[in-house]
């Protein structure tokens, strides 16, 4: 007996229809835009034993392995997609083929080092994973965990058990705010990285092993990860809470904040004092990073916000900014636009627009910063 003995067989259309009709009426119609799918990860106490039977004839073992994927498919296809409405959610378990669904895996894994390993290793399956930030023993640990969370696919604060809030450690409140605001400023960069994930299958947050598949780097270090096409994230964590070693891949790398050249294919030591308590971020030579000029509080506020473009290093570089209505599947009919940005070695910026009738999400480029020291 589990869940009062009720275990729906979602391989059956009738069972899916009962749930999605109720969810449509009671949730989606009043504005619910996404779900967290919990307790589908196969732990017997919460699911069913191997000798259970289902009306479809599907074995209990097979059902356990696919239940998370069945739930994703049902919510995505039968609840949102049929209404031309996009969604994004969390899921406790998944399986092969899940990268086509807009869900991020999470788990009851709370060690900070495990957070970073999960972000890196999940990309080897081309899927997304995110940590839950629940609690911390002090302000330093809270800030370091917030650094990692804000550079994951879905930035999530799940602190119902501890009651801790972003401002629970006054000594770090301002730095926590800076971290959240930086993620919001990077929305043009991140949204475009997610578009690349959809169109080309390149995970927006990925292992350095995968980075080697794209530019020849060969570093295997699961304490760091790539954030989008150009940025390397090396968070402080656990015993390395205020200093750590960073093994830079081949190529010239620059400090994100100052533009200072930091090295190539070598090990460097970085401290929280050097970063002024910001997450260590490094950017490849020639990278062009589009950002909002200032932070916003919600994604609705990104529309028409002026942009800042940062160009790192001395080589010419380019980037693309992808824009659509971020609510529907109209982009599948060609309703989107791509802004292609090129910056030459002298810092001159050229912008061309591939317009397919899509909306303007982000505003004009008003600031170009040359980040090279």
Notes on the protein architecture:
With 373 residues, the protein is of the alpha+beta class. The protein folds into three domains: 3-185, Alpha-Beta Barrel (TIM Barrel); 202-284, Immunoglobulin-like, CATH 2.60.40.1180; 288-371, Golgi alpha-mannosidase II (Immunoglobulin-like, Sandwich). Helix content is 26%, strand content 20%. The chain is built from eight helices and 17 strands. The chain has helices spanning 13-26, 60-80, 112-122, 139-150, 173-185, 187-200, 208-215, 272-275, and strands at residues 36-37, 89-91, 103-105, 205-206, 225-227, 231-233, 243-247, 253-255, 261-263, 267-271, 281-284, 288-292, 307-312, 317-323, 337-343, 349-355, 365-371. It has a six-stranded antiparallel β-sheet. Strand 8 (253-255) and strand 9 form a beta hairpin. Helix 1 (13-26) crosses helix 2 and helix 4 (139-150) runs parallel beside helix 5. The chain is globular. It starts with 12 loop residues before the first helix and ends with a strand.
How are the secondary structure elements laid out?
Blueprint: H1 13-26, E1 36-37, H2 60-80, E2 89-91, E3 103-105, H3 112-122, H4 139-150, H5 173-185, H6 187-200, E4 205-206, H7 208-215, E5 225-227, E6 231-233, E7 243-247, E8 253-255, E9 261-263, E10 267-271, H8 272-275, E11 281-284, E12 288-292, E13 307-312, E14 317-323, E15 337-343, E16 349-355, E17 365-371
Parallel strand pairs: 1-2, 2-3, 13-17
Antiparallel strand pairs: 4-5, 5-6, 6-11, 7-10, 8-9, 8-11, 12-13, 14-15, 15-16
């Amino acid at each position: 007996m589990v869940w009062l003995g009720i275990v729906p067989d979602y391989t059956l259309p009738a069972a899916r229809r009962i749930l999605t009709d109720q969810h449509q009426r009671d949730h989606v119609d009043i504005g619910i835009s996404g779900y967290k799918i919990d307790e589908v990860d196969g732990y017997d106490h919460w699911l069913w034993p191997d000798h259970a039977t289902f009306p479809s004839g599907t074995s209990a073992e097979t059902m356990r392995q696919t239940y998370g994927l069945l739930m994703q498919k049902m919510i995505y296809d039968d609840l949102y997609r049929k209404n031309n409405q996009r969604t994004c959610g969390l899921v406790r378990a998944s399986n092969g083929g899940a990268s086509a669904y807009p869900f991020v895996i999470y788990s009851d894994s709370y060690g900070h080092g495990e957070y970073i390993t999960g972000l890196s290793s999940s990309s080897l399956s081309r899927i997304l994973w995110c940590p839950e930030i629940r609690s911390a023993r002090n302000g330093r640990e809270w800030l370091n965990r917030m650094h990692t969370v804000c550079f994951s696919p879905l930035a999530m604060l799940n602190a119902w058990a501890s009651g801790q809030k972003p401002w629970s450690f006054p000594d770090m409140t301002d730095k926590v705010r800076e971290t959240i605001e930086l993620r919001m400023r990077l929305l043009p960069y991140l949204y475009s990285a997610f578009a690349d994930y959809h169109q080309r299958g390149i995970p927006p947050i990925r292992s350095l092993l995968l980075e080697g598949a794209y530019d020849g780097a060969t570093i295997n270090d699961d304490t760091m990860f790539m954030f989008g096409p150009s940025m390397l994230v090396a968070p402080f964590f656990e015993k390395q809470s205020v200093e750590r070693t960073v093994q830079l891949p081949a190529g010239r790398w620059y400090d994100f904040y100052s533009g200072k050249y930091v090295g190539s294919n070598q090990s460097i030591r970085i401290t929280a004092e050097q970063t002024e308590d910001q997450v260590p971020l490094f950017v490849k030579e020639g990278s062009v990073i589009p950002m909002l000029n200032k932070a916003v509080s919600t994604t609705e506020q990104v529309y028409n916000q002026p942009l800042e473009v940062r160009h790192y290093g001395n080589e010419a570089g380019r980037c693309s900014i992808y824009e659509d209505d971020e609510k529907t599947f109209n982009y599948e009919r060609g309703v989107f636009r791509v802004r292609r940005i090129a910056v030459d070695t002298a810092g001159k910026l050229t912008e061309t627009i591939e317009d397919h009738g899509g909306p303007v999400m982000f505003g004009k480029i008003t600031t170009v910063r040359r980040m090279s020291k």
